Amino acid sequence: MGYRLVGDATMVVHFLFLAYMAVGGFLAWRLPRTIWAHAAVAAWGLISIATGVECPLTALENWGRNNAGLAGLAPSGFIDHYIEGMIYPEEYTTVVRWIVAALVLTSWIGYGTLSRRRAARRGPVERPSSEGLTSA
Q1: Cβ atoms within 10 Å, residue 106
Q2: DSSP state of 108
Q3: What is the pLDDT along the chain (136 residues), one digit of tens a residue?
Q4: Among candidates 12, 71, 22, which has minimal Cα distance to 42?
Q5: Could you count the other beta carbons within 10 Å of the beta carbon of residue 62?
Q6: Which of 4, 52, 95, 109 is in Cβ range 3.0-4.6 Å of 68 for a Cys bridge?
Q7: Any idea where the domains of the chain sit in the sequence?
């Protein structure tokens, strides 16, 4: 039971991770500090697509499912198992990847625009003057 719970919980986290990769940059519009987390997630997504490296979440889900006596995701990965052919036809994989890339790019452009507007409203940053300082 515990191993199956690990597998199921990992599947949920994996879905949330992919959703955050697609639209997390828009969250940074309201919570600017989250842009760094989104940059890391987007970088991981790009690296995993470019290199084909297995996601640690896939490995963890396989471990939980296999130890629970269930079939794992191997040889396919999470996206192949749960998303391609279920949410969109497999032949649209490239199109979906471009759509996600466009969402990420759009969210970052919007984040940059909003950051500049916020900075302009705050005005120029005052730097401490060197008056009154003596050199030894």
Answers
A1: 13
A2: H
A3: 899 999 999 999 999 999 999 999 999 999 999 999 999 999 999 998 899 888 899 999 999 999 999 988 867 789 888 999 889 998 999 999 999 999 999 999 999 999 999 989 987 766 666 665 665 5
A4: 22
A5: 20
A6: 4
A7: 2-122
Q: What distance in Å separates the CA atoms of residue 12 and residue 32, rounded to the nearest whole number? A: 25
Sign of CA dihedral 81, 87, 89, 92: negative
**Three-state DSSP class for 132?**
coil
Q: Could you please report the per-residue DSSP string of 30-82? A: HSGGGHHHHHHHHHHHHHHHHH-PPPHHHHHHHHHHHHTT---STTS-HIIII
Backbone angles phi, psi at 23, to 5 degrees: -125, 5
Q: What DSSP character marks residue 91?
A: G
50 phi/psi in degrees, rounded to 5: -70, -35
